[in-house]
Amino acid sequence: MKLSSVFVQGLLLSGIMASPIADSKNSNDTVAVEGGSPGTKLCFDANKSVFCYGNNYEKCVSKLNASIRPGHGIPENAYNYCKFWCSKVKNIDDCRTNKKKFDYHPDFACGKANYC
To answer: Where is the signal peptide (predicted)?
Structure first.
C-alpha cells in the first residue's frame, strides 16, 4: 500500500471521527454509522450540509486540499466526498443516487438512515 493511500485513509478517517456524523446529538445532518439511532437523519439542500465545508463544492475541496501535504494534491476521495455532501439529500433515493453518481462510499448505508 502506498504511503499516500495510507495518509489519505487516515485523513478521511480522522475527518469522520471529528465530524458530526460520529455524534448523534449534533445537527440534523447526522447519521449513525452503525444503523442509526432515534432522531438522526440526512436532510439537507445542496450546499447546506455541515459536511460541505464553506457551503460550496470549491471551498470544500480547497479546505480538504489545505489538509494535504504540499505537493501531494487533492485525493480523488476529496472530490467524491465534497460532491456527495454538497448535494441535496432529502430521501433514500437522493442518498443512493448521489453515492453512485459521485462514487462515494461512506461507512453508513442509505437504507439505515432516517430522512426528512
So the answer is: 1-18
